[in-house]
User: What shape does this take?
Amino acid sequence: MKLAPATSLRALHVLTFFSHTCLLEPLPPTVLFPSLNTTLKMLHYKYQTRATQVNRTITAHMETPNHKTETKMEEKDAIKIESEFRSEFLQMLRKRRAPQVPLTVEIAKPAAVFWYENNPNEEETMKSCPKKDIENFKDLLKEENLYLNIEEGDQGKLPLLILSLKESDKQIKRPAVVFLHGSNKCKEYLRPLLEAFASRGYIAISVDSRYHGERAKSATTYREALISAWKTGDTMPFIYDTVWDLIKLADYLTQREDIDPSRIGITGISLGGMHAWFAAAADTRYAVVAPLIGVQGFRWAIDNDKWHARVDSIKHVFEVARGDLGKSEIDKDVVEKVWDRIAPGLASHFDSPYSIPPIAPRPLLILNGAEDPRCHLAGLETLRLKVSQMYAEFQCSDNFKFIAEPEIGHQITKLQVKELSDWFDNFLKPKQLVPEL
Assistant: This one.
């Protein structure tokens, strides 16, 4: 494929992640989280609906001085916890990085070859996404195929598919949403969602996660990468390496002239839901978050012997580990050792009870099936209570919603797709910022 010359990105952007992520320098606390006064204004006002703003204003007049002081201390503690998590998580992400290169953009053609498993039921569900009825929609649809150069090596090029409506007014900055596919899928697979959101005025972006789509050489590339990670410990193909890509993607999106850098959302399905949750936990530039059938408790699953369905989804690496460890069968010891090797901390200090709360107070919608064997509902009860408390401490409980759809296993549904669309429309579409006082 012949590509246009790479174009260098501008040096300036919102949270100065660009220089730090490229140079692999430690991020100081001021970069990981702005100063307290600035942060509180941003957290209180940036993502609230008007109804929430009115309710909070009324409540503020009723609070006693002591209650206000107590609330402010709770917010300070929450901000400190979030900052410490991001610092530790970002340091872990850097440990197995290939040499970094300056972030550049290449114009590409639509992918000619990509690997994915078809799921007709899921495709039909995605097509149910609310779509604005526009005459000659296909003619008005703008498609961009790009590569972001991130680091050296065959996985250092991030493929992007971006859909949006052609706009006559080039000065208007629009909201954007990043969509992430599940295991053995690709960015093109998500096209029904991209088109639906583009019709409603969003810039819709999807990417190929590591060892998927254009980044796969065969149908077994992802499987081979997981086994290699177990054997060598050189990469983190399960979740973490793609999270690094999404941090770099935020570098790019916040510099685009057609995107409002304060209105970027992120979502994903299954593995993509995990990517979305961790990317949002690591990078505050993802302003609204909605993982589908991805949030789970890895530690809880091990402790309660409920790890089988998750392990079966990528069983080959566990079978290889079982043999290497001299075991006759996969047991919880094998499971824990594999997670520690291919995704350090996933079953301990980076598990969902620690990585989901740092998303607060940004709007967070968690969508799961109540009978999902990979994302056991019982394993999320402590998390749900903890996150609810976190949003209460930030005085924005309406910014968190947890849906466990009854009688639904590990699958997305039309209800979930509708809830997802409403969530982004509620928090990203309206420009309802309150001026700083």
Remarks:
- Residues 274 and 294 are 5 Å apart (CA to CA).
- Confidence is low (pLDDT under 50) at residues 1-64, 432-437.
- The longest strand covers residues 141-151.
- The longest helix spans residues 65-94.
